Amino acid sequence: MVSITSIPTFLKDLWGRFHHDEVAGLSAELAYFFLLSLFPFMIFLITLIGYLPIDQETVISFLRQYAPGEAMNLIENNISGIIQNHNSGLLSFGIIATIWSASNGLNAVIRAFNRAYDVKETRSFIVARLMSILLTIAMIIVIVIALLLPVFGKQIGLFIFSAMGLSETFLVIWNAARWIISFFVLFLVFSCLYYFAPNKHLHWKEVFSGAFIATLGWIIVSSAFSYYVGSFGNYSATYGSLGGIIVLMIWFYLTGMIILIGGEINAIINSKREKKLT
């Protein structure tokens, strides 16, 4: 971790890297790939929900906590269309399309992290693509778990409460803990991303700082942006029917920027550690 006395220097280094590594431009590239991945992923998720004891509204309620209002309207409209044309074949299509589209986004992340660490990609195209696909699959699994914990958390707590005869205090603790668990699931996603994506051998402890800041930053920025759009921003008045897409792209842009900033933070810490060793 960075000491208090070095925080100004650390922030100066981060600001310099932000411009040198073109984080803003790469964030826009990630936002594009995130958008391409979104609706195939929604097809996969909503079709999968048809085989699980969970309803559409529960998932939408969870997404609504983070996604801006206009973006949620766009997502809900597409979900409704998917459900009306429900087809088991959509599950296979959704899986393939999601993995391929999202792996392109992960490829962009890998290039950005290699740039942050000042290393070249020496892994073959096949290895790099397989790495992107494996990370994509892992992220999808963890994201699904992160969705299921808030959704089924209450039912799980009630089951444990009744089966073991615990006090009502347990339910209060459990209701708080399941959201904390979701935070750590997101933290795990970012940690794995920061550890495996760069073409550089790293220690796990070297990626935890960036992963923690990225997790906390994503939750805060998503909630703040959602509040801003709902309270002050009226993108539909400016962009008309494209308002939802614009809001979604801005949200993805901020998400991509937070992910890349977390990688830059880890790269700075790694650079300082290596300088101390030399």
Most strands sheet: none
Low-confidence region ranges: none
Structural class: mainly alpha
Counted up, domains total: 1
Average predicted confidence as pLDDT: 74
Q: What would you call the quaternary organization?
A: single chain
Report on the architecture of this protein.
It is a multi-pass membrane protein. It holds the Pfam family Virul_fac_BrkB. It is found in: Cell membrane. Keywords: Cell membrane, Membrane, Transmembrane, Transmembrane helix. The protein is mostly helical and 278 residues long. 82% of the residues lie in helices and 0% in strands. It has ten helices and no strands. The chain is globular and about 60 Å long.
Which structural traits does this protein have?
single chain, 278 residues, mainly alpha, 10 helices, cell membrane, membrane
How is the secondary structure organized here?
Layout: H1 7-20, H2 23-49, H3 56-64, H4 69-84, H5 89-116, H6 125-164, H7 168-196, H8 208-231, H9 235-239, H10 243-277
Helix pairs in contact: 1-10, 2-4, 2-5, 2-10, 4-10, 5-6, 5-10, 6-7, 7-8, 8-10
Summarize the structure.
The chain is mostly helical and 278 residues long.
